[in-house]
From TrEMBL:
One term of GO molecular function: catalytic activity
Organism: Actinopolymorpha cephalotaxi
Gene3D superfamilies cross-referenced by the UniProt entry: alpha/beta hydrolase
InterPro entries tied to this protein: AB_hydrolase_1, AB_hydrolase_fold, Carboxylesterase_BioH
Protein name: Pimeloyl-ACP methyl ester carboxylesterase
Length: 279
């Protein structure tokens, strides 16, 4: 695990840096294109309540993706990254995007392939909008696109910050624990426990807030290759205006919103297919 210190926040952002498989591995795939140009580095960002270091290793290990160098970035206040003083870091989507940019700048990376899921998709969109030099290809997986539209974020943001900190956070984690125990799982309960209540609430409010341009507009205005992934079993995701603006839409089979666990193999192969035309 590697780390980058955010001096203006006083916190460390930590991330897994997976080097990618050898070109002589058993995938039957080579590195680079026919002209010999190197593969882009892939950068992954997970969703609200999640941690990239927990949600994505089994996805990037799939043969369709494992030859790429992959950076799995835990957002500020999630996973193995430090939480931050709310007076210095507001936990907005824009600030999360700037923190990811700091990681890429520290590593001297440009033109990466950024894959973001849910909140991570919105962070990836903002990163591509603010720092297009860092993003060569954008893959947004069921991101928040429009003001006021969300599920978990709407549940959290409907409460005042004080109420969520005092009662709502613990109540949410109790429901997650009950539901995951019934399903024989425990990952989301663990990762939500790495979020601070203030960080989760302020990030949720930011995800749903009015902004100009909206996430949808930022996505449609991008000049790099852009793809949007949606689960086969996700109902009602609004794809309006995306394909006419050059955003390719790809369906993850046998998956709903939590595609990292609903069908990780299908998620990996869909990501690979989504970026193939851009290579």
């Amino acid at each position: 695990m590697r780390s980058v210190y955010l001096s203006h926040v006083g916190s460390w952002v930590r991330y897994l840096d997976l080097p990618g498989a050898s070109p002589n591995d058993d995938t039957g795939d080579d590195t680079g294109d026919a002209a010999g140009s190197p593969d882009p580095v892939f950068v992954y960002v997970a969703g609200l309540g999640a941690a990239t270091s927990a949600d994505f290793p089994h996805v990037v290990a799939h043969p369709a993706l494992r030859r790429h160098r992959s950076l799995l970035v835990d957002l500020v206040g999630t996973g193995w990254s430090d939480s931050a003083d709310p007076a210095r870091f507001g936990y907005t989507v824009e600030e999360h995007a700037d923190a990811v940019a700091a990681v890429l700048d520290a590593d001297g990376l440009e033109g990466t392939t950024v894959v973001g899921h849910s909140l991570g998709g919105s962070v990836a969109i903002v990163l591509a909008h603010r720092r297009p030099d860092l993003v060569g290809t954008l893959v947004a997986c069921e991101p928040n696109l429009d003001p006021g539209v969300g599920d978990l974020s709407a549940h959290v943001a409907a409460q005042t910050e004080e109420a969520f900190v005092r009662r709502g956070y613990d109540a949410l984690r109790a429901v997650v624990a009950r539901d995951e125990h019934a399903a024989g799982k425990s990952v989301f309960h663990a990762t939500t426990g790495r979020w601070t209540p203030v960080g989760m609430h302020r990030t949720s409010v930011s995800m749903l807030a009015d902004r100009e341009p909206t996430f949808r507009t930022q996505l449609t205005r991008g000049l790099m290759p852009r793809a949007l992934l949606v689960g086969e079993h996700t109902a009602g995701f609004d794809l309006g205006g995306l394909e006419p603006a050059g955003v390719t839409v790809h369906v993850v089979p046998s998956a709903a919103h939590v595609m990292t666990y609903d069908n990780p193999a299908g998620f990996a192969t869909t990501i690979a297919a989504a970026v193939q035309p851009a290579r």
